[in-house]
Amino acid sequence: MITTQIGKIIQNAVVFNFKNERDRAMNADSLLENVARLFALLRERQIDYLLVGGIALLQYVEGRNTEDIDLIMGLSSLRKLPEIKITSQDVNFARGRLGELQIDFLLTRHRLFKQVQKQYATQHYFAEQWIPCATVEGLLLLKMYALPSLYRQANFARVGIYEQDIASLMYSYQPDMALLLKELAPHFNETDNLAVAEIITEIKQRIARFGKGIIFD
């Protein structure tokens, strides 16, 4: 098990990202306090949530860097956290801040997000505490779901990151990708289904070039 201190990961990402404004880098010390405060609030108010995104990924593969926290949560649960200042929100997503800490919310109004929270959850120990965290399969579902939108936005930097995350999880854990693609199918149109299936096939071919003899269903 990789023991991760969430606050330290985010603090380091902010400090060593030279694109950040000077004030945010100087205030990075407060991130440790804000991360601890966030998870204390979630625990004290018995909020039902699931940790996803880059921090969750660090429980399975090394080398990921992230400046924010991603949580799946119901809108009713989010309303129990008035300390978080919501900066943007639509039907399925919200973004907020707790001091210097940015938090992205995937709202359970979306059927896939709710499914991941209920069916693809486990517990991992972070330096702060035991935290409900997405499984490998849950992370793969979310990352594959995001790909068509990222391609349409021509956000090729994030496309590269997401595809590398998917490849790392596939290589290390050999999940049943056919089953996961079937799970995703109801959430896509036919074009997106075909596009994501093609991406997964290409990633399998890349993995095969390592010559490890791994066989995917």
Map the helices and strands.
Elements: H1 6-15, H2 22-26, H3 29-44, E1 49-52, H4 53-57, E2 68-73, H5 75-78, E3 85-89, E4 93-98, E5 101-107, H6 111-119, E6 121-125, E7 130-134, H7 136-152, H8 156-173, H9 177-184, H10 190-208
Parallel strand pairs: 2-5
Antiparallel strand pairs: 1-2, 3-4, 4-5, 6-7
Helix pairs in contact: 1-3, 6-7, 7-8, 7-9, 8-10
Comma- or semicolon-separated keywords:
217 residues; alpha+beta; Beta Polymerase, domain 2; 2 domains; five-stranded mixed beta sheet; two-stranded antiparallel sheet; 7 strands; globular
What does this 3D model show about the protein?
This protein has 217 residues and is α+β, with helices and mostly antiparallel strands. It contains ten helices and seven strands. It has helices spanning 6-15, 22-26, 29-44, 53-57, 75-78, 111-119, 136-152, 156-173, 177-184, 190-208; strands at 49-52, 68-73, 85-89, 93-98, 101-107, 121-125, 130-134. β4 and β5 (101-107) form a beta hairpin. The protein is globular.
By helix and strand content, what is the structural category? alpha+beta
Distance between the termini: 26 Å
The backbone outline, from C-alpha atoms, is: globular
Question: Which CATH architecture of the largest domain?
Answer: 2-Layer Sandwich
Helix % is 40-55%
What oligomeric state best describes the polypeptide chains here? single chain
CATH topology value of the largest domain: Beta Polymerase, domain 2
Reading the helices and strands in chain order gives HHHEHEHEEEHEEHHHH
Percentage of residues in strands: 15-25%
Radius of gyration, taken over Cα atoms and rounded to an integer in Å: 18 Å
Mean pLDDT: 87
How are the strands of the biggest sheet laid out side by side?
1-2-5-4-3
Largest beta-sheet details? 5 strands, mixed
Name of the CATH first level of the largest domain: Alpha Beta
pLDDT < 50 stretches: 14-18
Q: In DSSP terms, counting alpha (H) and pi (I) runs of 4 or more, how many helices?
A: 10
Strands, total number: 7
* Tally of structural domains: 2
